[in-house]
Amino acid sequence: MKLTTHALRSLVLPLILIFGVWAAAFYFILSDELIDEVDDQLEVYSEQIIRRYLAGETLPDSADGSNNTYFLRVLSTSELGIGKRVEYEYKNIYVASRHEDEPARVMHTVFECADGSYRRLTVMTPVYERNEVISTILVSTFILLVAMLLVVIAVFAWVFVRHTRPLYRVLRHLDDYRIGHHEPLVDDTDVTEFSHLIASVNDCIDRVEEAYERERRFIGDASHELQTPLAICQNRIELMMDDPAITEQQMGELAKMQQTISELIRLNKSLLFLSKIENNQYIEQTAVSINEKVHRQADLLAEVYASRDIRINVYDKQQWTLTANDELIGSLVANLLRNACLHNVDGGTVDVYITDGALSISNTGDGEPLDSACLFNRFYKAHHGKRHSNGLGLSIVKAICEVSNLTVTYSYESNRHCFMVASHR
What we know:
It is a single chain. This protein is an alpha+beta fold. It has helices at residues 3-54, 128-163, 165-176, 192-241, 248-278, 290-304, 326-342, 393-403; strands spanning 69-74, 86-95, 100-112, 118-126, 286-289, 311-316, 321-324, 349-355, 358-364, 406-413, 416-423. Helices cover 53% and strands 19% of the residues. Strands 6-8-9-11-10 form a five-stranded mixed beta sheet, covered by helices on one side. Strands 1-4-3-2 form a four-stranded antiparallel beta sheet. Helix 1 runs antiparallel to helix 2, helix 5 runs parallel beside helix 8 (393-403) and helix 6 packs parallel to helix 7 (326-342).
């Protein structure tokens, strides 16, 4: 989840609660004010009727066209102590103009006449207009709250995104960062925290670059320095093997030593080659035909593995030409084909399919899939790995694909191991 989305989700609930409480308070306050206004009107109407009644004047009609209604009732002595002098209540009354019962606000007032008797005046007024007003205000308030919520969220999102641009710039820089191709981040923000973050990222990347450069120099120097003593050892063993005084047992031991040194030389060359790939030392690019590379390597390997009766079938579905380093692509094809032959069964087959943008190489195997999680790791060997494999071939393939804008994947179908190399579309 993005930071902006997370912040908005954290903001929406408090805003809804705050606006909801405000809306409820606004509704009840407004309703209270409207009730007070109605009660004030009833008080004025009641006082007018009582004043005229006590003065002996003619009372207004009980239905004066304003929907206000009243009636008087004489109170008995037993009723005098019941209830308050002034009471309010809600009840339904029949409104002739609407021909239906409507809710009304009712006011009861007890007053004393000149002869010492008591009267109970009841005045009432319909409140359906008040309910309609409150309903209209309630709907309008809800619409206003939703609009306010959306505006606040939009403004917050705009402000948040605008002020977090340096953070996203740092993230993009880290996503695009590749060792050996570092350009320092420019600190163009006046926010203290972001300036600190940019400085920390630049410092961290500088340390990574420094450590990587030391490692690169060590690997390169170590590989070059090992080449000479290994070659000298191999030459001396060959000289010793040419000595006529050497016994058969000594000859066997020397042969084993020579084989071990040959494996060390191959391993050293592979590590040096892998180091050069990762250090981007193969920068020259040309138009390379995958079809030509495959056919050339297939012809060479067919002769090498003829004794094991391994057949290499190449199917040119389409021509595939890409812009890359010629030496690297040749090594990529050679490693994949050699791997398919080396880990094949006697009398097995290698099927190669070439299309525009994809190369598929599959071979028969022993019926067990490889561990795709660590297949491309250095020195990985399956439990049935061949003795002459140093476990670096697929690591080299993976490294070449990364610097050549290619992808390599592994699958196991119908008792066949399949490696697919494809270009990024």
